Amino acid sequence: MAVRLGFVGTGGIANRHLTCAKAHPDMDIVATCDVAPDRAKAASEKYGGKPFSDFRAMYDEVKPDAIVICTPPFAHGDIEEEAARRGIHFFVEKPVAISMAMAGRVLAAVREYGVLAQVGYMFRLAPPIMKAQQMLSTRPIAMVQAHYYMPGMPANGWWAKLELGGGQLVEQATHMLDLGRFLAGDVKSVIGKTSRVRDWTPPAGYEIKGLAAYWEGMDIPDTTALILEYESGSMGTLSCSLVPQVSWDNGFKVVAENALVTIDGANVRWQNEAGPFEEAAPGDWPSLVLIDFVHAVMNGGKTTVPYEEGVKSLAVSLAGYESVNRGHQPVELAEILPAGL
Ligand SMILES: NC(=O)c1ccc[n+]([C@@H]2O[C@H](COP(=O)([O-])OP(=O)(O)OC[C@H]3O[C@@H](n4cnc5c(N)ncnc54)[C@H](O)[C@@H]3O)[C@@H](O)[C@H]2O)c1
Description:
- By secondary structure, this protein is of the alpha/beta class.
- It has 2 domains: about 5-120 and about 285-305, Rossmann fold (3-Layer(aba) Sandwich); about 125-280 and about 315-335, Dihydrodipicolinate Reductase, domain 2, CATH 3.30.360.10.
- The protein has 12 helices and 15 strands.
- It has helices at about 15-25, 35-45, 55-60, 80-85, 100-115, 125-135, 160-165, 165-170, 175-185, 290-300, 305-325, 335, and strands at about 5-10, 25-35, 50, 65-70, 90, 115-120, 140-150, 185-195, 225-230, 235-240, 250-255, 260-265, 265-270, 275-280, 330.
- The protein has a 9-stranded mixed β-sheet with strand order 14-13-12-11-7-10-9-8-15. The chain has a 6-stranded parallel β-sheet with strand order 3-2-1-4-5-6, sandwiched between helices.
- β5 (about 90), α5 and β6 (about 115-120) form a beta-alpha-beta unit.
- The structure holds nicotinamide-adenine-dinucleotide (NAD).
- Nicotinamide-adenine-dinucleotide (NAD) binds near residues 11, 13, 36 and 156.
- Nicotinamide-adenine-dinucleotide binds near residues 73, 75 and 93.
């Protein structure tokens, strides 16, 4: 029987998951919820389900099997805890929270009530990246060099504020930090440096078209660099910037024994002792992480990216900021993570 899904947060990214759910025979959209009632209503008219503006009312009235949470980084905690308490499984978009205190609370609820949780780190389920992970798993990795460059800032209000979105390092480059952990294992310590390299004050008459090139009151860095030390001894770097340039660009170079891997988005190529390899990701790859979650719920199985993984990847970003606060000293992940992770 199809999994009865409720959606909490029906803004930008929810459309990807709602589109997937509407087309998939194993998913049944039973409810949509957004604090902006017009958004919940618009989603329900387009994709189906009953609209709500209060997630508790949605849980109690519709009793979904599982929910898909697409709220901004600051809007987590109660949504997940109240679901877990009712035995409702959840898929949550990355990053799992804005702070370790918030993520730790939710982790405790996931463990206490035994619900399934999946974090939307979609790159982990892209078939070419899974093959790269397999190939790398048998050899020492020297360097995991990651970047995320974006030609401007999403103009949704919360992105520009550190306490709401966490800045690019928490909100977006988290994809790369999580993928680094997928490829090279857990991170031991982080050194961070952040910068504002340009003036984001809007000139007179400036109108936002697409990504924002200017934003009044923005308080996040526009450029960040991290140096990572993995538990295995591998080294890593992350460079990210949202200074307006010409295109989105995210990916990796991974240097391992007898192998050099290039990841461009979700496409992969490498050269190793067996020769060259190249594979492009299929068109539907960003939806595989939701499909995997729904099948885990249907079959009582495990999720591929459990909540713990989201907490560990968030901790790498937060360690980067903590290093900045400490004058660029290395910060151990063990100082940031909840006990036992
Ligand atoms: N995996 C990806 O590729 C990807 C891409 C984009 C965004 N995201 C993530 O998805 C999340 C949402 O991003 P977005 O771009 O859709 O943001 P958005 O601002 O477009 O949408 C968020 C929605 O959540 C609603 N909301 C806020 N608090 C709520 C609450 N307590 N209850 C119900 N609804 C609430 C808002 O009204 C809004 O409609 C972010 O964490 C972002 O990082 C992931």
